[in-house]
Design goal:
The chain has 2 domains: 267 residues, Metallo-beta-lactamase, Chain A (4-Layer Sandwich); 75 residues, no CATH class. 35% of the residues lie in helices and 17% in strands. The protein has 13 helices and 16 strands. A hairpin with a 2-residue loop joins β9 and β10. α11 crosses α13. The N and C termini lie far apart (77 Å).
């Protein structure tokens, strides 16, 4: 007899139940002794089918390290099964860290209260304190962008109205908790102000996307940046924190407090969201730091210090995946892009070289497009960037489909901010001159 699908395993009742079939196919692998990789979920429609990061569980003696927890309740029992196994075998301390505070990495954080460990710690880099306040972070990031681009939430109202129309047939639509958000979306005028869009999207995030889940930010032990230590790993150095045998690298690439996890015993590097094609999804990311972390990891791999490599969204069965890319009109940038786990020196070098080249070409392409047209708005620079024949630039722009967080205006704004591009406002247009090229 067929078992009824349980909508409670999804993040909100408006997710299609068909997601559960896809989730059932996600794997659990022990990729090294006492190192577990739980495959998450990532499609190309973040609103209808919310993403959930990969989850990693690593044991070091009496300590178990939980790195990211994902967003979908479906994964909770899988995580707890492994944690409880180690607790029953004598592990005393559970340490949880998240690669970042974005919602697809933190919604299941509350499971640390259920795992049965004597000591439980949630360590959070101080710059990520604002990021893990998820709905407010998204809105505040958009506010910061308003000084750079006229409407950072352009067309968002159309996407929300479409979602609201689809939700009307769902029995949960009339639930007062959710209906507050749906009613606000329906009430949006044809041409809402930025303030109206921010307020309604905040409601949507809090009531629909995030549900009633606790990201455990109140439990967090904040790690101030002045407590980081400088650590050389082979020919490169990082700043971060030592946790057991693991070194937690603060790269500040995908978000201000973003971290990678290095396991020297297994020569394993987990780069969170610092090696994904949608970078940077928010204005507080860093193109410079994305280039830096990819370059340093490539050098480490060349020197033999990384022999296992993956990240928070390496899920080849769904993303990027050749079939998904065909829908976007692009091909894989390199075969290694579709690899779930890079193994061995050669593959690890190729993996990081892919992203090093990707980020460098995005920066160079942005600069070239800006110089081609001179003083311009960010939207105009993005339009010029669309003429590029560079495969990496074309791939980035193809990723910018409806309902994905890959926004080229954010990438261009971040580049201009980090390189101190001259800015002025003329008749309501926010204009930027190309970044100065210094000559000596």
């Amino acid at each position: 007899m067929a078992v009824a699908k349980d909508a409670k395993l999804l993040i909100n009742p408006f997710c299609p139940l068909s997601m559960l079939d896809e989730l059932e196919d996600s794997f659990i692998k022990e990729i090294a002794p006492d190192v577990w990789f739980l495959e998450g979920y990532l499609g190309i429609d973040f609103f209808r089918k919310p993403a959930s990061s990969n989850v990693f569980i690593l044991r070091d003696g009496d300590m178990v390290f939980l790195f990211d927890t994902g967003a979908l309740p479906f994964y909770r029992e899988r995580i707890l099964k492994i944690l409880r196994k180690y607790s029953s075998k004598g592990a005393k301390t559970l340490v949880m860290m998240v690669s970042q505070g974005h919602w697809d990495h933190v919604i299941n954080n509350g499971i640390i209260r259920e795992a049965g460990f004597e000591n439980v710690r949630f360590l959070l880099p101080e710059p990520e304190r604002n990021v893990i306040d998820i709905a407010n972070h998204f809105i505040n990031d958009a506010k910061d962008l308003e000084a750079w681009v006229k409407d950072p939430l352009e067309n968002l109202e159309f996407a929300m109205k479409m979602l609201e129309e689809e939700a009307r047939t769902n029995p949960a639509y009339s639930d007062p908790y959710y209906k507050v958000a749906w009613d606000a979306i329906r009430a949006l005028p044809e041409k809402p102000s930025l303030e109206q869009k921010r307020w309604v999207f905040h409601l949507y995030l809090e009531r629909i996307m995030l549900g009633n889940y606790d990201n455990m930010s109140a439990w967090a032990e904040l790690l101030p940046l002045d407590t980081r230590e400088k650590r050389w790993i082979g020919p490169v150095y990082f700043y971060g924190w030592q946790v057991g045998r693991f070194f937690v690298i603060h790269d500040a690439a995908h978000s201000p407090g973003h971290v990678c996890l290095y396991d020297p015993l297994n020569k394993l590097m987990l780069t969170g969201d610092s090696t994904i094609e949608i970078n940077p999804p928010f204005f507080d990311g860093s193109m410079k730091n994305l280039v830096d972390i990819a370059t340093k990891c490539r050098i480490m791999a060349e020197a033999g210090f990384i022999e296992l490599a993956t990240d928070a969204h390496r899920q080849a069965t769904r993303y990027p995946g050749k079939e998904r890319l065909k829908m976007m009109g692009v091909e894989l940038l390199a075969p290694i892009q579709e690899t779930i786990l890079a193994q061995g020196r050669k593959d690890c070098i190729a993996f990081y070289k892919l992203y090093e080249d990707y980020y460098r070409d995005l920066v160079a392409g942005t600069d070239s497009a800006h110089r081609a047209i001179g003083e311009a708005t960010i939207v105009e620079i993005v339009s010029e960037l669309g003429k590029s024949t560079n495969k990496n630039v074309k791939f980035k722009l193809a990723m910018c489909m409806p309902h994905t967080p890959s926004r080229p205006i954010v990438m261009v704004a971040n580049y201009l901010k980090e390189n101190h591009a001259p800015r002025r406002v003329v008749d309501g247009r926010i204009l930027f001159n190309p970044v100065p090229q210094w000559k000596f």
